[in-house]
Amino acid sequence: MLLDNFNRVHDYLRISLTDKCNLRCTYCNPNDLPKGIFANAPRMTADEIDQIVSVFVRSGVKKIRLTGGEPLVRKDAKEIIQRLSKYPIELAITTNGVYVDEFIETFKEAGLRSVNVSLDSLNRGKYFSITQRDVFDRVQNNINLLLANDFHVKVNVVLMKNINDTEILDFINWTKELPVHVRFIEFMPFIGNKWSSEKVITHQQILDIISSKYHFIKLLNEKNDTAKKYFVPKHQGSFAIISTMSDPFCSGCNRMRLTADGKMYNCLFAKNETDLLCSLRQGKDIEPLIQECVKGKSLMLGGNNEEENWGNQTGESHERTMISIGG
Asked: Domains along the chain?
C-alpha cells in the first residue's frame, strides 16, 4: 500500500504514453514554446512500461489511466494496452478522440470500457480555433461510436473565459439525448499557456450559469473523486466540475503520474520529480523510490498554495507544460 504522510492511500496511476499530440490546444501544447525542451530525454519502451506497472500493481495500484499528449499517436499503443490488460486493475484512457475508431476493437479486447474524450467546443469553427486542426466531425463521430458500443464516455471541457464559456448550456443540453458525462475543468496554469485568474470560470460561476436554465441535482461523490457531479432530471447524461483552482479536492487525492520519459510525479503541480526509468535501466529496485515519492507529497497543489505568487500571469511556476506531464 502506498501511503503519504497525510494517510492518503494512493492506488491510481496515470501514465503518459507520449508527450506528442496531433492537436495544438493552446492551454496544453502552445505553439510558441521553445522546440525540443525534452527532446533528448529517453522514452519508456513498451517493455519498460510493463515492468514499472508491475511494481505499482504490486504496491497496491488498482486503476491505471493512459494519457498523453495523445496516447493513441504512439505507434505501439495497441501493444501497451494489450500488455496492461493482464493486470487486475481498472484500465481507462484519456484521448482527443481522433483515432478512437482505429482502436475500439483493442479497447474491447483489453476490457477497457471507460474513455475520456477531450472536446472543448461543440462548434466546429471554435473547435478549430482552439485545436488548430479540422477534425471536429471525426471526433464527434468517434464519440457516437463509443456510445453505440456501450462505453462509458466522459467529455473533458477546459473552460476559458471569452473563448468557450458561452457554450456551457450547449454542453448541458447535449446530455439530454445522449448518455455523455460532461466534465467542465477550470483553466489551470502551466508554462507557456498564458494563464491568468481573469480567464478562469469557477465552479460557482459554472453552476450559476447552468441554474439560469436548468434545475439540477447534486450527486454523491466518492472519496477519491476529483469532479463534483450533478445531473439534470430526465437527461440521459450528467455533468461534473473539476474545480482545481477555486475549490481544490486535494484531501482525497489518490493519484500519481508517470511521464513519457519515466519521471514520477506525486501531484500534477509537484515541484519535484522522481526518475524511475533511469533507476530501472540501472537494474535498481524502484519500489523504494515510488514509496519515497508518495511520502513526499504536499498536502495541497504540490505545495504551490503556500506561495503567494502561485498561478501568476505567465503560469511559469511549473517546469513542464501540461503536455509533457500528462493530462
From this structure: 12-325 (3.20.20.70)
> Are the beta carbons of 231 and 216 closer than 8 angstroms?
yes
- pTM for the predicted model, two decimal places: 0.91
**Cα 24 from Cα 131, distance rounded (Å):** 5
Beta-carbon contacts of residue 246 (< 8 Å; ≥ 6 apart): 186, 200, 202, 203, 204
Instruction: Say if residue 312 is exposed, middle or buried (CB neighbours under 10 Å; 0-12, 13-18, 19+).
Output: middle
Strand partners, 158: 185
The torsion region of residue 45 among left (phi > 0), alpha (psi -120 to 50) and beta comes to: beta
pLDDT tens for 91-147 read 999 999 999 999 999 999 999 999 999 999 999 999 999 999 999 999 999 999 999
Mean pLDDT of all residues belonging to the chain: 90
Amino acid at 250: C
Task: Name all contacts of 206-211 with Cβ < 8 Å and 24+ positions apart.
Answer: 206/159, 206/168, 206/241, 207/241, 209/165, 209/168, 209/169, 210/168, 210/169, 210/172, 210/239
The answer to whether 171 and 182 are in contact (CB under 8 A) is: yes
Alpha-carbon distance of 70 to 323, in angstroms, equals 9
Indicate the SS3 state at residue 159: strand
What sign has the CA pseudo-torsion 211, 213, 218, 223?
Answer: negative
